[in-house]
Amino acid sequence: MKRCLSVLRLAAMLALSAFALQAQTLSHMIRDTGLTPEDFTMMDEAASGLYTADRPQTGSEASWSNPDSMSHGTVRLEAMREGCAAILHTFHARGASAARELRIRRCRDANGRWLLQP
Q1: DSSP of 5-74, one letter per residue?
Q2: 99 within 8 A of 106, measured Cβ to Cβ
Q3: N or C: which end of the chain has fewer CB within 10 A?
Q4: Domain ranges for the chain
């Protein structure tokens, strides 16, 4: 269940970040990244460790790697402001030499949940 929610959260991030560029179906955007559901889970876990820390540090980074898919990447906490985290994902899908980037923002709600924001 946790894995499914993580995949859905990252899928939503991709949808929101690409919305301004062009209208595509969510399944096409996910497929076009070349990332697997496990890759998305690893990306999300690496990111959440940065902004949910007791004292989140701007500029801190975490790496993730999935030997099964050959995908890997880094996550950087770019800013923390007013309960929101600006996050940069840089990843190589399926061992690709060219890196791709995904910028997202998550804000903490009154219940303590970190929600994806446009």
Answers
A1: HHHHHHHHHHHHHHHTT----HHHHHHHHT--HHHHHHHHHHHHHHHSSSS--TT-EEEEEETTTTEEEE
A2: no
A3: N
A4: 2-117
The DSSP secondary-structure symbol of 2 reads H
Place of tokens 């709600």: 109
- With H, G, I as helix, E, B as strand and everything else as coil, classify residue 3: helix
- pLDDT tens, 81-91? 999 999 999 99
CB atoms within 10 A of CB 31: 11
> What's the token pair of residue 78?
């770019």
What pTM was estimated for this model as a whole?
A: 0.74
Length of the chain (residues): 118
Q: What is the pLDDT of residues 24-54, one digit of tens each?
A: 565 676 778 889 999 999 999 999 999 998 8
Would you give the DSSP letter of residue 108? Answer: E
The candidate with the shortest Cα–Cα distance to 62, out of 44, 79, 80, is 44
* Distance from the Cα of residue 31 to its chain's centroid: 15
